[in-house]
What does this fold into?
Amino acid sequence: MKIIIRQKYFTIGNKFALTDENERPILYAEEQIFKLLANLDIFSLSDALLYHMQAKMMHFFSYFEISNGLGQVVGYIDERAHMPGFRRAKMEVDGMTFKIKGGPIHMKTVVKDENGKWDKKHPIVTSKKRLMRVADTYVVDVDESRIEPAIGAMIALWYDKVRHKKH
It folds into this structure.
């Protein structure tokens, strides 16, 4: 499934639609950065909270706690040491473990295969930034047979957040 994330500048704190390639909304997201720590919420089309991501001051690099719509902690994204322009993180949600790697304009996420090895040939989420756009735009490919689209969108939004140091 392709998800288009198009964030308009100067709309901080407002909900924005995450669309499919035909511009139909599939999810909504809301960033709140005027707090001590940044929040990110993912909503269904019926406005139900699916996931909440909260930055925590626990590590030298970024650490985000992930809760479901009921407020129960279901995982985290823990950023590892990185070189300028590149990001590395480990993510765990609902018992699945992911490895996230990102460069200046792209990101990919892999999960372990049935043999316990990282499946680098078949990323579960990839994201590419569209350059020369008025809005901050990402095209996110999510393998929805292995991960729900809301989690794939959250990974891409985390990447955008740490790339722009919004936390």
Summary: The two ends are 28 Å apart (CA to CA). The chain has one domain: 2-163. The longest helix spans residues 149-163. Residues 2-163 form a domain with the Porin fold (CATH 2.40.160.200).
